[in-house]
Structures
1.
Amino acid sequence: MKVNFANISEDLIKALNDASREIGINRIAIVGGIIRDDILRNYLQETIELSKDLDICLEGSAHALAQEIKRTLGKERVSIIRINQNYLTVEMQVDNLKVDIATARKEIYPSPGENPKIFAAKLEEDLGRRDFTINSLALDLTNNNLVDLYNSKNAIHNKQLEFIHSKSVEEDPTRIIRGARYAGRLGLTITPKSLKQIKS
């Protein structure tokens, strides 16, 4: 399955790959909603606005990659907006595109609804902490493979909204609001299993 991002330039993809190799990062991927929207637009012929956000996940330092991208593309094109040391993330602007870079991580919630404790992890572990299956796809830029651990493509094709795991709402109740927004904006149906989790 080919993923073609109409609003991401080839030189940005090349810069991400080159920068990651330069600083010794072995794995970098595009993740989340931009892949979901590409499938909806190009394979299901849905009319969806092009995303203005690009989410990057890597096994390594998000801050180091952001600095290398800025060095590679130049400060005229790149600005670092915010660094969040607690969540191992960097928010930056590349041309007119908002780029969020995150170190792959796993989260442990001390108690329901509290901020999680963060630990660096593998890409697959990072995908498992996300909210819905439709947002858990990753395009691994190191080998151009699509990583789909939770049958995300099927959920997108079937227009189904489902939590990744049984404690999604318990850990973060705001996922209910996000789910309602996704359902409304993308015309998705919340699965009975997920509705049961919300009610409980």
2.
Amino acid sequence: MDTCAAPAGEDLPAGRIAHLQRFSTTNGPGLRSTLFLKGCPLRCLWCHNPEMQAFGAELMVYQAQCALCGACVQACPNGVHALEGGVHTVDRRGCRLCGRCQALCPGGAIELVGQSCTPRQALERLLRDRPFYATSGGGVTLSGGEPLAQFDFTRALLALCGQAGLHRCLDTSGWGGRAPELVGLVDLFLWDVKETDPQLHLRFTGVALEPILESLERIDALGGRVRLRCPIVPGVNDRPAHLEALGDLAQRLACVEAVDLVPYHSLGLAKARALGLEQPAYPALHAQAKAALLERLRARTRKPAAWL
């Protein structure tokens, strides 16, 4: 992981970054650097990245990694940390996000997530891996959170990456209706379709489906390139009808090149706990169920489809 330093003053808009994942192989073609932006208007029940929902900086405390050494207690000027009965407690209301506890934690149990970064500073970090992009056919992916929720920053950074000759992917839910404005700046959209039933989409994510599909239609008309990325959560959206609707959508839109099914994983649970949040848990998808769902999808489209 990597983060950006505070902006050093320039005319391009600053953004809020969660972290930078280098040498990624699942967020577009080739080896990629995936920049995760902080903040998301959606509230998916199964969120894999709960630390990227809020737009501001947040403190994460991983209890399993805490050695109960007390370094954070001594470091904090506001008395936020305490060790009580062999348990590390955090008064988040008093936290001023100064980062002193993170700097002195010997076990890496404390993480301050969310730092300001200008597009040019972000580009400098991304360019460090240019040799790997060139040899693997990779590039840069902007993800989140929801990068469209920081639209000006996202647009500026995509433009800079294009000027530098970098391949650009945008991993997005399509929220906000402005994705079509970026067609000329994005080489490949990784478009998260979380549910195809409008009422269920609203219930599962907290936002309407219709504007998201309208944006996808506009991108199709503008000649953009899209891979659908569809999280499948047992007991939530693993309905055969949903998979069939995804296949119909992929087949109908010329812009869709392939469909990737993303199985639910429980990594978000530990991150939610580190934020002091509760999040529902769901079972893992078994191989037989995955095969049946993929068969439903493939029966409705000739586009390539597979599990990630």
3.
Amino acid sequence: MRILVIGGNRFVGKALAKKIVWEYRYNFVDVFNRSGTGPWGTNIIQGDRNNRKDLDKIDWDKYDTIVDMCLFKIEQFELIKNHIPIHTNYIFVSSGAVDYIDTNSFGDYAVEKMDIEKALLKSSLNYKIIRPSYIVGMGNHRPRLGYYISQLKNNEPITIDGDGNYPINLVFAKDVVDCLIKLIVDDKRTYETYNICSDESITINSLIEFLKQELDIENHEIINTVDSLFPNQSFEFDNTKIKDDYNVNFTDLKQGIIKYIGEYNEL
């Protein structure tokens, strides 16, 4: 199987490329990104997806599957849509923010992701879409759990947008990778959109209290302000469809958080 990961040099994209090569032993995994970096065993194609000449470096016809980790604007999709063969299994990483587009909590980000989804719907591509909730895990350039742990351990105040009682879904990077691999090996035309999230919700306040319990910390200080990590609004999803279609098991929320704390402390 020949796979192209657009992105693949940070967080989930990097973890995906690494797992494909190291655990599944696929020999043909190309990674396209601006930095020209990627896991050992992948073939690196350095380029900017906003540059037509760089996109011409890619031999689009040779891939069985393309996983697009960093598609944010409709203009970027317009640049590649005619390059992707209609039989190629194309997986677009969208966002759970699309489900909450009417709340304006996620601004242009949600609107632009929705525009791309609509364009895919009108295309002839063999596409699948995932909508992850808040992704957490080591290596995240927006370390949501890491922020709370750091603030608690250093006795620093925690910023919260609102009262902290709104429920949210987290999803661990490992689970996002596992879902993507399920979609990679399934090349059937499904045109499906899947929510990717943990089985249970948690409020911001409950999350902080659980972290305090595991870190053996008694008190914390709150500053109420606009918080870009978790906007003041519920963010819940139903993951039943991906579980039923691909027999996916998601990490237990509390066990995943405990594991994250251990990895954080090791670093």
4.
Amino acid sequence: INRRDEQTVNFRPSLSLGVLNLFQISERTCAAEHEIPLHRQSCHELTCIVEGEGLFRNNDVDCPVRAGQLHLAAAEETHYIRASSRSELRFVCVGFTFNKEHADYPKYAAIDAFFSTPDRHICDDRYATRRRLSEALGELDGARVLGEEMLQLTLLQVLIGAYRSFDRGIAEGGTTADRSRMVPLLNE
């Protein structure tokens, strides 16, 4: 793996960000046919495919991926990545767990349960995950005012957006009645 715009930040032990524990955030590129060997996930890993195509494998299940998709590997799953023979594979990813002891955890319990036992590993990204993960990486570049708070909020947006992208029964935009009540409020 080698490219000018790559960046990987690892936290051992994890960085505590309120209800989240951050283990890794990374932007990487695999050359055509490059492989990241089989490994066991120590945390959940959400990956946004930026360019190219390839194959992710979760517990012996092949998951072909392409640009514009999200991939989820749950903690304790075995995981493998291979770029296609036709192109390099560029992706951004975040490794995390939820802090079950945190006071806000009950709000995120359903999301944590989904990430722990996903019913599928691939979906289209509908919530600008790449941009938000790039913003999160930017917060780690230097000492910024309230940097950890911004990092936490950005990562929560990433994870909530991913959960919604995986169609977990989240209603988009509410009902027509809800929207018609909101328009006058917005106009005011």
